[in-house]
Amino acid sequence: MSIDGAPPPGARADWTIDQDWASYTQAEHDVWVTLYQRQVEMLPGRACDAFLRGLDALDLHRGGIPEFDRINVELRKLTGWSVVAVPGLVPDEVFFDHLANRRFPAGRFIRKPQELDYLQEPDVFHDVFGHVPMLTDPTFADYMQAYGEGGLKALGRGQLHNLARLYWYTVEFGLMETPEGLRIYGAGIVSSHAESIFALDDPSPNRIGFDLERVMRTPYRIDDFQQVYFVIPSLKALRETTLADFTAVYARLDGAPDITIDAMAPGDRIFTCGTQAYATAGGRLAAV
Ligand code: HBI
Ligand code: FE
Prior knowledge:
This protein is an alpha/beta fold.
């Protein structure tokens, strides 16, 4: 989804707006509380330790939508990151520039009660509950800044599509290997009740060991649960991928065809060879 052009009325040149926390209605705070309670009850044993530690450190369990100015005091102390409010999706180069400067752009709006389970555009619950706790971890915080710097370079070289896949299969839908089993660190999973279960428990999707070029050759779903999840050995290993020589990576990718979304590829480290039953049955429209 690419946004371009001038910022919307009321937004600054970098697309930020004031959060104007006082103007949230009680109904909007209630949506946050409903989503928060549902997730926080089920995430121990599913979300990775860094995420759970971040949730506590930022004290997000207050009774409603967090005030960015409040959580930024702690977040800045921990990793130098801060959350800035934006109206919604921002253009890629604006997004990358914020990340490269340790600013996470979070949608100010929150979903309606009738769309608790699915929305296309990231709202404040997806962004602040899903993404921000991981930014309290110094290693992941470094990765996100390096990702932003890499994105600005990739934009200049027409390689954005490869980097968008890296973002999608790590920051949004990444799994991690731990001695206790697979754990979630991706924001798109951890902020979704159904996908927090599907991504770890369902026999349908493939779960494959993370490899930078493998991920960059794999398309992704934006409208439904993923058909493949990639598993990193650790956050330190993830951060090391940003030290790769991307010129050589992009050169090798130029000639390589995409790998179909439900396929296994030679060299894959396979955690789950999925049945793909969910996707074959029509996905989100099918009874899960
Ligand atoms: N804008 N606010 C916002 N949040 C995102 O996650 C986001 C974005 N713009 C572009 C974008 N993500 C993706 O295209 C990234 O892969 C770059
Ligand atoms: Fe996101």
